[in-house]
Design a protein that fits this description.
- The protein is α+β, with helices and mostly antiparallel strands and 344 residues long.
- It folds into two domains: 189 residues, Fructose-1,6-Bisphosphatase, Chain A, domain 1, CATH 3.30.540; 130 residues, D-Maltodextrin-Binding Protein, domain 2 (3-Layer(aba) Sandwich), CATH 3.40.190.
- The chain is built from eight helices and 17 strands.
- Strands 4-3-5-6-7-8-9-10 form an eight-stranded mixed beta sheet, with helices on both faces. The protein has a five-stranded mixed beta sheet with strand order 12-11-13-17-15, sandwiched between helices. The protein has a two-stranded antiparallel ribbon with strand order 1-2.
- It starts with 13 loop residues before the first helix and ends with a helix.
């Protein structure tokens, strides 16, 4: 005879976790729960296609460019379509801004009128690595609309990072993992393909105070400011005789570099250069959501002078410099930049 006692199991799925923590979410009314689940479903679909990309005709370029002037990959376009469709069909978001689209998309029929959220998303970060089987990812951020009972408008997306309700990323690597925060810590979920669910694998992630890695495209180093060059010299141990140098690790896929540093400690640097004096990474689609995550994990994200989350966005595709990671390393980078600024 079976006991009526409830059986316990170790596995906690993403939907279970979200429902259990829903009371801790800001403005918890169930809509945010649904929205995060919709993003999780779309991520599973994209993960499936990434896994079989070499076997079907979704590798290579589309022959078009996105608004950033970058060649679009076929999988880029597929991911963009899947996330937009999931957000539209979910019926919770009233609009989406995608790195792949020139303008934001307002879901403007009556079904979406009054729904409280908009989503900014980079559907497939690191897509230049698609054809060579290197880890890529998705980055997303969620804002409440600035006025209730209307469709999405541009000002809903142009909010400082401090106004974020939730943010996260999905990394498609040796396993597929979803990491997100709602402002109550950072948690990671690994996709178990045998049951088709994201399962809690990294609870309450905390970034180490410092770390062994620095990540920068050193091919651009001579085009950076002297402060950045001196900081990278410090990372290599050349500024401190007998110091243990950091290890250079640069994948060229922001999600992959960020994820490694979040777990093991380190700093990712994409500064302003002569070719890109305003920086290269996008504030809405990349920098703000990752800044929210890293701050919730105990880290820092700045442009070298001020926190990324304090920026007031001016346009959808605005670019900014980024220094993000372990707090001791980010502070050290800022010391070198400040020294450069006050040098005669």
């Amino acid at each position: 005879m079976f006991s009526s006692r409830r059986f316990k199991r170790d596995i906690v799925t993403l939907p279970e976790f979200i429902l259990e923590r829903q009371k801790d979410f800001p403005y918890a009314k169930g809509d945010l729960t649904t929205l995060l689940n919709d993003i999780g479903v779309a991520a599973k679909i994209v993960s499936r296609e990434v896994r079989k990309a070499g076997l079907v005709n979704i590798l290579g370029e589309m022959g078009t460019e996105n608004v950033q002037g970058e060649r679009q990959k076929k999988l880029d376009v597929f991911a963009d379509q899947q996330f937009i469709a999931a957000l539209r069909q979910g019926g919770v978001a009233c609009g989406v801004a995608s790195e792949e689209q020139d303008e934001f998309i307002a879901f403007d029929d009556q079904l979406y009128l009054g729904h409280p959220y908009v989503v900014a998303i980079d559907p497939l970060d690191g897509s230049s690595n698609i054809d060579v089987n290197v880890s890529i990812g998705t980055i997303f951020s969620i804002y409440r609309i600035t006025e209730s009972n209307r469709t999405a408008k541009i000002e809903d997306f142009l909010q400082p990072g401090r106004e974020l309700v939730a943010a996260g990323y999905v990394i498609y690597g040796s396993s597929t993992m979803l990491v997100f925060t709602t402002g109550r810590g950072v948690n990671g979920f690994t996709l178990d393909p045998s049951i088709g669910e994201f399962c809690l694998s990294h609870e309450n992630i905390r970034i180490p105070e410092t770390g062994p890695f620095y990540s920068i495209n050193e091919g651009n180093l001579r085009d950076c400011g002297q402060g950045v060059q001196d900081f990278i010299g410090w990372c290599k141990g050349s500024n401190d005789e007998g110091a243990t140098p950091l290890s250079g690790r640069y994948i060229g896929s922001l999600v992959a570099d960020f994820h490694r540093n979040l777990i093991k400690g380190g700093i990712y640097v994409y500064p302003a250069t002569k070719k890109a004096p305003l920086g290269k990474l996008r504030l809405l689609y990349e920098c703000n959501p990752l800044a929210f995550i890293v701050e919730q994990a105990g880290g820092m994200a700045t442009d070298g002078h001020r926190p990324i989350m304090d920026y007031q966005p001016r346009e959808l595709h605005q670019r900014v410099p980024l220094f993000i990671g372990s707090p001791k390393l980010v502070n050290k980078a800022m010391e070198f930049i400040l020294t450069e600024a006050v040098s005669p």
